[in-house]
TrEMBL record:
This is LysR family transcriptional regulator. The keyword DNA-binding applies. Keywords: DNA-binding, Transcription, Transcription regulation. SUPFAM superfamilies: Periplasmic binding protein-like II, Winged helix' DNA-binding domain. One of its GO terms (molecular function) is transcription cis-regulatory region binding. Residues 1-58 form the HTH lysR-type domain. Gene3D superfamilies: 3.40.190.290, Winged helix-like DNA-binding domain superfamily/Winged helix DNA-binding domain. InterPro entries: LysR_HTH_N (IPR000847), LysR_subst-bd (IPR005119), WH-like_DNA-bd_sf (IPR036388), WH_DNA-bd_sf (IPR036390). PROSITE patterns: HTH_LYSR (PS50931). Belongs to the LysR transcriptional regulatory family.
Length: 293
């Protein structure tokens, strides 16, 4: 039995898509089908059943995957012991939301690349909803998001979600007068609000916190870039919601001012998301250790 065939099988358990698995290994979809057919002949049984575009693993496939995962992990662990960790090869495919990508993730990627020069990092920036879709479809292996997910959805999609860290949010403007007292949100509904696009965790958190008032909020403009929103708020005296870390410089220089809100919780949590029991990518394991340290 070839290690690569075992890895292709394990990857197909994760993606449930021959197309995605073929892309992950830079082979053709028929090659994936041949590997699976050979395994089914070897073990005298069906390993996957087709449901629409997805391949659902049979109980036999799940049991086989559980055992082979241990073998693959042991194989790479033995290689790691025989070789300098700095020479570890491979790639990691991750996605994160804009706030996380721009203000939290970059230093971690730098430190990781400095230690593991031969590992290729494929990182992309998407909103929380799209990060989830990319992970479900097997296009990435690891996501960092700013939205809470329904536990039932996490379980149904066979995902593993973990708390990473807290983030403080603030409402800000360039109009200094709005910094002079605390407001109820109802007093600010008619201001010109600029928010992120639908699907943004930042937007969802804020609108959920203000509850029924969100229906009356004057959403003057929606943009998909925090930098563009910040520039407009600086120039036009509009209002928006930001991660405090993203406007620390402007707050310090008094070009933006915090608007204090009464009875509104402006703290949120960041989460990591990956496939449950997806542990055979040694490069990703190393990244997670640095990410969590």
């Amino acid at each position: 039995m070839k290690i690569k065939d075992m890895e292709i099988f394990l990857d197909l358990l994760n993606t449930q898509s021959p197309t995605h698995t073929a892309n992950n290994f830079s082979i053709t979809q028929p090659n994936v089908s041949i590997v699976i057919k050979n395994l089914e002949n070897k073990f005298d049984g069906i390993l996957f059943e087709r449901l629409g575009k997805k391949l659902l693993p049979t109980p036999k496939a799940l049991e086989l995957g559980k055992n082979w995962l241990k073998i693959i992990q042991a194989y790479y662990q033995s290689l790691e012991k025989l070789n300098d960790e700095s020479m570890l090869l491979g790639e990691i495919k991750i996605a994160s939301t804009q706030s996380i990508s721009e203000h939290f993730l970059a230093p971690i990627l730098f430190d990781f690349k400095a230690e593991f020069k031969n590992i290729e990092i494929r990182s992309q920036t998407q909103n929380s909803k799209e990060c989830l879709n990319l992970l479900k479809n097997g296009n990435i292996e690891f996501a960092i998001i700013e939205a809470e997910l329904d536990p039932a959805l996490v379980e149904y999609e066979n995902l593993e979600i973990n708390f990473w860290q807290d983030d403080e949010l603030i409402v800000a403007t360039s109009d200094k007068k709005l910094n002079e007292k605390e407001f109820y949100i109802d007093e600010l509904l008619e201001q010109k609000w600029i928010l992120r696009e639908v699907g943004s965790g930042l937007r969802d958190k804020f609108l959920n916190e203000i509850g029924a008032s969100s229906k009356k909020l004057n959403i003057f403009l929606e943009l998909d870039r925090i930098a563009a929103i910040k520039e407009l708020v600086l120039q036009k005296k509009a209002i928006s919601i930001f991660s405090k870390k993203s406007i620390e410089k402007e707050l310090k220089n008094s070009t933006l001012y915090e608007i204090k809100l009464k009875n509104i919780n402006l703290k949120r949590k960041f989460y990591t998301l990956k496939r449950k029991n997806y542990n055979f990518n040694r490069a990703l394991e190393k990244f997670e250790k640095i990410f969590k340290s």
